[in-house]
Fold this sequence. Notes:
Layout: E1 3-8, H1 12-23, E2 28-32, E3 49-51, H2 56-60, H3 67-78, H4 85-100, H5 102-109, E4 138-140, H6 144-161, E5 165-169, E6 171-179, E7 182-191, E8 206-219, H7 228-233, E9 247-248, H8 257-264, E10 269-270, E11 275-283, E12 293-297, E13 303-306, H9 322-330, E14 336-342, H10 343-349, E15 351-352, H11 359-362, H12 366-370, H13 379-387, E16 391-394, H14 397-408, H15 415-427, H16 437-445, H17 449-454, E17 470-482, E18 485-486, E19 493-495, E20 501-507, H18 528-545
Parallel strand pairs: 1-2, 1-8, 2-5, 8-20, 9-17
Antiparallel strand pairs: 3-4, 6-7, 7-8, 10-18, 11-12, 11-17, 12-15, 13-14, 14-17, 16-17, 19-20
Helix pairs in contact: 1-6, 1-18, 3-4
Amino acid sequence: MDHEVIIIGAGLAGLVAACEIARAGKKVLLLDQEPETNMGGQAWWSFGGLFLVDSPEQRRLGIHDSKALAWQDWQGSAGYDREEDDWGMKWAKAYIEFAAGEKRQWLHELGIRFFPIVGWAERGGHLANGHGNSVPRFHIVWGTGPAIVAPFEQQVRQYMDRGLIDYKPRHRVDQLLTDKGRVGGVSGAILAPSSSKRGEPSNRTVVGGFDYSGHAILIASGGIGGNHELVRKNWPKRLGKAPQKMISGVPAHVDGRMLAIAEQAGGRIVNRDRMWHYTEGIHNWNSIWDNHGIRILPGPSSMWFDAKGKRFPLPGLPGFDTLGTLELIQSTGYDYSWFILTQSIIEKEFALSGSEQNPDLTDKSIAKILKRVLPGPPERIQSFLDHGEDFIIKHSLEELVNGMNELTGEDLINLDDIRTQIEARDRDLENSFGKDLQLAAIRSSRKFIGDKLIRVAKPHKLLDPKNGPLIAVRLHIVSRKTLGGLQTDLNGQVLDMNQQLIPGLYAAGEASGFGGGGIHGYRSLEGTFLGGCLFTGRTAGHAISKL
């Protein structure tokens, strides 16, 4: 055998697994079709949020969390209802134990630290046992995505120096080699060198071929988010008609090709129709990859309207239920929607997903962080206000509505309708109580000190000029994550169509549905994608290292 273990994909899950296996003294061949500049994959671009349960950061903020509450939230969000959910549910239970136990200490020992304010993502907007996080659990890594990738990349390079890891970028796997039911090798194409920067398209010029054998093969190649054709093919009817126009939250090389190759070798793919796409996307005015979309991480105060200017019903509140809102949007027959907000709201509530959009956190700069409390929007938000094609800023509602209709080229929005809806909302602010559930949610959020300090604006009337100017943001669907994938047991070993283990074949990260072919079920609680890569890579690495 050329190597004891072959790992396909040098993203976070692949790096973590490679470290675990090399630590056990086994030799690893790490293959990736992209240039070396892409080591770390999508994790490098991430905001760096991790799901933790009953952490010191939570306790310092007065948050009472527990494994029981986290599991209640997870089950209410996942909605497991299929035979193939059995392994995903087992992975979920194990992940809750991990998130409430050794996860933080393990990362702390690797030098990873957390921003002291815990974020509250996916708040739900349903009953207590329904979808959403009952408490804040989104722990932002100090240094964002690059800081998560860094310790594992450093270890991989150390093992490369010691001859335990052989890393080969520009090696595209085209086939898994099987013999008598066992997967024992890979073959593929060597691609021409590329000088592309991280995230930029690289060439597909073939300059050679390869065949390698190994005792175990681990697929850690990611999902399908960059392949819009495949996203539409797998789109579930429950979320309405598939969007004809999407923007991409991931580069084009995140195309799912290894999933098809694994299926040809006998691997069982489950939950193809479960996926996670964001509804608050804007075009990146300074794009890195084609059709580059950025997700707004909104606070709860913006009013959310469909393409015709009708306010969304529950759960269509910013930051509460991603897929619930996606279903509402797609039911309108349009692929976009609108936020209407004020300068006061955007200054406090808007954040942008991605390490490159948060240089203060990514650079670990206290000085830059402190600038967020100064008057005016954060620097990166201001750049989108100045240059972004989806932003409209006006001093009157009439001008704003005219700008919205001009941007889309359609007279879909009626000024009187918009004014009536906003005025009705504003009237409900004249008492500290009322029936508008969005305002109730805002008031409730501000009882959490983290939201009150840096995340949720004080409730105010949108049409009061002192809170202006008014801002409208056109929101697009952003393709992102695959929630289904190759079904695996609790060691990360892939199952075949008869639910029997395939000797020699393993999967981790998004390719495995973040565990078991779908650890999240229908919905994610956020902070669980990076965490799922860490957990599945570590678990599969442990199992393979014992072979």
